[in-house]
Amino acid sequence: MSLDLALMVFDHIEGAEHAYADVLGTSGGAPWVRQIAFVEHHRHDRIVVRGTFAGRYVDLDERGDVIGRRTAEGAVAGAAAGVFFGPAGIAVGLVAGGTAGGLSDSEHAAHLHDAFIDEVRGEVPVKSSAVLLLAEPEHVDEMVAAFAGGRGRLVRHHLSPEEVQALESAVASSPLATE
Predict the structure, then answer these.
(1) Quick one: 123 and 103 in the same domain?
(2) Cβ atoms of residues 167 and 49 within 8 Å
(3) Containing domain of residue 79, as a range?
């Protein structure tokens, strides 16, 4: 079986979801609608992939955990700065400092590196998003037609059986997607 890998790339982190919502009404019965995942490429080269890919539900988030050493340091520093404003200042400083530290922690998590993620990272610019589809060429053609005239840019690869197997193996530990 021949499969194609397609990315319909959009400006803005939420661009792919908005474009998908725009075409869903006219494409709701098409098979590709239930075979897609959304890709987001955030600041600091962080990738998020969520949705159906190769028959599995993929939930990959490189942004990292917001609880860590920087969270505690930020909370303490914020509370110390808030001392000058009394109990309310301490509370506000604690929350603001912890939030800032948590965001810093999430942006310093290790990057995932495998062929698939690195390929996606290269095809979807930072601060952009994409609809990702691995499907038969005719289903990819239907998706491309649905987004025709839109703001998206198509990246399409015709895959060999070995490449398909490698992609399927990469997500084999993810749960099966349900219809």
Answers:
(1) no
(2) no
(3) 69-107
Q: Nearest Cα to 63, choosing from 129, 124, 109?
A: 109
How far apart are the C-alpha atoms of 35 and 143, rounded to whole Å? 10
User: Would residue 178 count as lying in a domain?
Assistant: no
* Cβ(38)–Cβ(17) below 8 Å: yes
pLDDT at residue number 90: 66
Q: Of the ranges 2-11, 33-42, 110-119, 137-146, which one carries the lowest mean pLDDT score?
A: 110-119
Determine how β-strand 128-135 pairs with β-strand 3-11.
Answer: antiparallel
Query: Which pLDDT band holds residue 75 (cuts at 50, 70, 90)?
Result: low
> Do 97 and 121 fall within a single domain?
no
Residues 59 and 75 in one domain: no
